[in-house]
Amino acid sequence: MRDILPEIEQWMAEGEEIALATVVRTAGSAPRPVGAKMAVTRSGRMAGSVSGGCVEGAVFELAQQVLESGRPQLVQYGISDEMAWDVGLSCGGIIDVFVEPLVRRG
Amino acid sequence: MSKLFNALREAIAREDAVAQATLVRGEPLGAKLLIYEDGRILGTLGHPELDEAVAADARALLPQGKIETRSYQLASGEEVDVYIESFLPPRRLVVIGAVHIAIPLVAMARELGYRTTVIDAREFFATRERFPHADELIVAWPDEALAQVPLGPQTDIVVLAHDEKFEDPALQVALRSRAGYIGAIGSRKTSEARAERLRQAGFSDEDIARIHGPIGIDIGARTPAEIAVSILAEIIAVRSGRDPRGAGSGLLPAKATAGND
């Protein structure tokens, strides 16, 4: 959290709507540990990361939904299935990511 | 924006140790509880019995700065998951000797989230121009300056002074402190001579073994920036419970590295 707090403070000062994604559980060789965070604004800005770049795109989309609904979500990302178009972790492992609205208008 | 997030930001800004618990499976999803070091709590996870159990666990996790998700069973029998994150005050890196290596060391330590303090008795070394990234510059004799700095387990001390008259008093203060990491620059021979002087000053072998010297891990570092990486890598290893000693630092004799000033 501390590493992305300066960006969050800056975005708050600029009146952005912000969602926060946190890795809350990992299994296997997860790319980033429990506690890794990524903040996303409704306007499309991003800070931090929850994986080595594998699922950030999906988390970004989910963060937009969370900001829209105001309702947090817990999602699990697993090993990518090459046969499917689903997002996944190329390095293996499973991560649970909790996405919540941090700053939301009205 | 939530009142609790504001309270968390305030605690972080004040450098208070605080833990935040979030309900990540169960209802009310996303509910939060802040647990302060002194036992105060703020907010709720929506179930009084859960708040109590989580607060007790969070207080145990907080001193180690631990982060984890635990499962709890509610009075109703329902199982929920709570993510608990500890926020400790930032680590502090105290550098004795405002030498060339200290410049990249302080800049990189800042990237790692450290608060940095640079100490040197020579005022033309410890200047703001040379150390724009340092949080604190102290021009004083190291042992006097160290008396002004908190030297708890969150503090790491790196002695780059490479001069007995600066180094020995600093190391004596460092060894009497609870600092998390103590390192001193110099070749193996220099380190042995230093150990002997400290032994004569009354320090035990166990005390002296706390000093990492030659400082840094062996990555073939040559330039000041590379040596800074090697030192910080060693600090990270020690912090993570992996003592890399025995590998040898592989650094050049101190004259060729510390003497660039």
TrEMBL record, chain A:
Annotated InterPro entries: MoCofactor_Util/Proc, XdhC_CoxI
Domain of life according to the entry: Bacteria
Pfam families for this protein: XdhC_CoxI
XdhC- CoxI domain ranges (all copies): 11-78
Name used for this protein in its record: XdhC family protein
Organism (species): Thermalbibacter longus
From TrEMBL, chain B:
Positions of the XdhC Rossmann domain: 93-235
InterPro entries recorded: FAD/NAD-bd_sf, MoCofactor_Util/Proc, XdhC_CoxI, XdhC_Rossmann_dom
PANTHER family the UniProt entry points to: ALDEHYDE OXIDOREDUCTASE MOLYBDENUM COFACTOR ASSEMBLY PROTEIN, MOLYBDENUM COFACTOR INSERTION CHAPERONE PAOD
Lineage: Bacteria, Pseudomonadati, Thermomicrobiota, Thermomicrobia, Thermomicrobiales
Domain XdhC- CoxI: residue ranges: 12-72
Organism of derivation: Thermalbibacter longus
SUPFAM superfamilies: FAD/NAD(P)-binding domain
Chain intervals for the UniProt region annotation (Disordered): 242-261
Pfam families: XdhC_C (PF13478), XdhC_CoxI (PF02625)
Name listed for the protein in its UniProt record: XdhC/CoxI family protein
